[in-house]
Amino acid sequence: MRLKIRREALFLVLAAAVAVASIATFYFTRATTLKVAVAPKGGTEPALLQAYAEVLKARNKDIRLEILPFDGVRESAEALRAKKVDLAVVRPDIALPSNGLTLAVLREQAVIILTPEASGIAAMPDLAGKRLGFIAQRTADKALISELLEHDGITVSDRLEGQAVPQHGVALVGLEEGDIATALSEKRIDAVVTVTTPTTPAARRIVGIVRQASPDNGVRVIGEQDTTALVERMPKLAAVTIPAGLFGGNPRIPAEDVTTIGATYRLMARDSLSRSVAASVTQHLFEMRSDLAELHPAANAIHAPAYETTAEATSTKLPIHPGAIDYFEREQESFIERYETWIYLIAFFGGGIGSILAWLRQRLSRVRRERIEVATERLLEIRKQAGATSAPVHLTALADEIDELAAEIARFALHRHVEARTMGAATIAIETARATVMRKTGFPHGQQTSMLGAQSVD
Predict the structure, then answer these.
(1) What does each C-alpha distance from 51 to 45, 183, 200, 281, 314 come to in angstroms?
(2) Considering only CA atoms, which of 248, 160, 158, 155 is closest in space to residue 207?
C-alpha cells in the first residue's frame, strides 16, 4: 500500500499549537468583569463606584465593574448574599450578608451630638429629659442613635405635642437643617444629633449653625466614654474618634478628642471571589484614590479596615477578604504564582507537543527514506529479472514498473527532503534497471533517458 504523507499535516499540528497558545494568552490577559450592587439610591457610594468603574476602564486595568443600583443597602446586601453580584456596598448594622468579606471601608459615619455651651449638657447622661433635634430622620440612623443613648440608660421616643419629656428619656424632634438655629433659640430643642461623616462639609456646616445660635458662640460635642464596650457588644458598629479641632473655631471645636460610635459603608466581596481578583480590586481602589477624589471628594474617606494580625483580620465578626489582606500586607501573588499551575501544564503539554513534532518529523523522514530504499531494492530485483528473461511481455511489464517506481521516487524527491546518498542510490538503480531492459529489447543504450537525471535533490 502506497504511503502518502502530506506537508499540510505538519502545518496543521503547528497551527493547533499556535491556536492553543493564543487562547491561553487571551484567557490570562483579558479583563475580569465584576457585578457590583451599589446603594443607597442617590447616596454617595453609587456615584463613587461609578467613577471607579470609569477610571478602571479608561486605564485599561485588568478589572471591569458592572454597576447595578439598588434602593437601599439592605437590598444590595441581599444581592450579595444571593450570589447575584460579586461585590456590594454594605452597611453591616443594617444588613450583613453571611458570605460577605470586606475589601475596603468606603465611608465611616458617626453619631455627632452638638449643643451650645450654655445648655449645661456636658455628657451623654445629661441628655435625659431633653429634646434632641434629629436631622435627616433615616430609620437606620434612628436605630443607631437609640443604641448609643440606651447604653447610658436613656430611652428614645418621638416627641408628642403637649407631653413632657420623660425624666430618663430623650425626645427626638425631627427638623431640617435650616430650622436648627430657630429651634435652638426658641428652646424647642436642647441639642442636635446627626449621623454623618465628621469630615464632610455638611458636618462643618451644622457645627457652624449651632455655634451661631449659641449665646457665647461656644459649641460642645458630646461623646461616649464606653465605645469599646459598645462595639464589643455590637460588633457591627464602629468606634469613631473625632479629633480635637476638626471643626476649627476659637476656641477650637471640639476642645479635645471625642469618641462616639458610628456605622460603616463597606465594599464587600463574596467569599468565593478569588484572592487574586479581590487583591486587584483593592489595589486599584487605593492606588487610584487620589485620582478618584478629583472626580468625587468622597474618595478621600476610603480607608482600610483596622486589624492588628492576619488571624484577627480573618476571624472577626466583620472579616476581611484574604485577597484584600494580601494587598494590605504587600503579599500579592505574582503572575507566575497566580498562574503557576496553568504555566506548568502549558509547559508540560507544550514540551510534549514539541517532542511529538520532533518525533513526527523524524518518523516522516525515516518513512520516506525507507520507502525509497524499498523502491531501490525492487529496481535492483527488476534488473536481475530483466537479465534472466527475453519475453517481450515480461520485459514490457518490467519497463512499466520501472517507470512507476521512478515516478514515485520523483514525487518523494520533489516534495520532501531526501538524503543525497539515498537519492543517489535510487537514481543509479533506475538507470541500471532501465539499461538492462533496453538492452534486452534491442534499443541502443544512447537512447536511454533517466527520469531523474535532470532532477536536483532537495
Answers:
(1) 10, 39, 19, 14, 29
(2) 248
Q: Are 104 and 125 in contact (CB under 8 A)?
A: no
Q: What is the CA radius of gyration of the chain?
A: 43
Helix/strand/coil percentages in the chain, nearest 5: 50, 20, 30
CA angle 155, 157, 158 (to 5 degrees): 165
- Contact yes or no for 88/266 (Cβ under 8 A): no
DSSP string of 168-223? TEEEEEEE-GGGHHHHHHTTS-SEEEEEE-TTSHHHHHHHHHHHHHSTTS-EEEE-
Grid coordinates given for 43: 447616596
Q: Is 43 helix (H, G, I), strand (E, B) or coil?
A: coil
- 398 vs 414: which has the higher pLDDT: 398
What is the spatial distance between Cα 293 and Cα 445, in angstroms, rounded to a whole number? 98
Q: What is the pLDDT of residues 41-100, one digit of tens each?
A: 888 999 999 999 999 999 999 999 999 999 999 999 999 999 999 999 999 999 999 999
- At 223-249, the pLDDT tens digits run 998 998 999 889 899 999 999 999 998
Q: Cβ distance 259 to 240 under 8 Å? A: yes
Cα(75)–Cα(46) distance, rounded to whole angstroms? 14
DSSP string covering 262-290:
EEEEEEEEETTS-HHHHHHHHHHHHHTHH
Q: Of the candidates 60, 37, 31, 32, which has an alpha carbon nearest to the alpha carbon of residue 50?
A: 37
Bridge-based pairing state of the strands 87-90 and 32-38: parallel
The C-alpha cell at 56 is 478602571
**Is the separation of the CB atoms in 253 and 207 below 8 Å?**
yes
Alpha-carbon span 221 to 214, nearest angstrom = 13
Look up residue 155 and give its amino acid. Answer: T
Is the peptide bond preceding residue 92 cis, with omega within 30 degrees of 0?
no
8 Å CB contact between 276 and 338: yes
H helix runs in 68-174, sequence order: 73-81, 139-151
Closest alpha carbon to 151 in 173, 119, 133, 124: 124
SS3 342: helix
Residue that the C-alpha cell 479641632 belongs to: 245
Determine whether 359 is exposed, middle or buried from the number of CB atoms within 10 Å of its CB (0-12, 13-18, 19+).
Answer: exposed
H-helix or E-strand spanning residue 368 = helix 340-387
- List the end-to-end C-alpha distance of the chain, in Å, as a whole number: 25
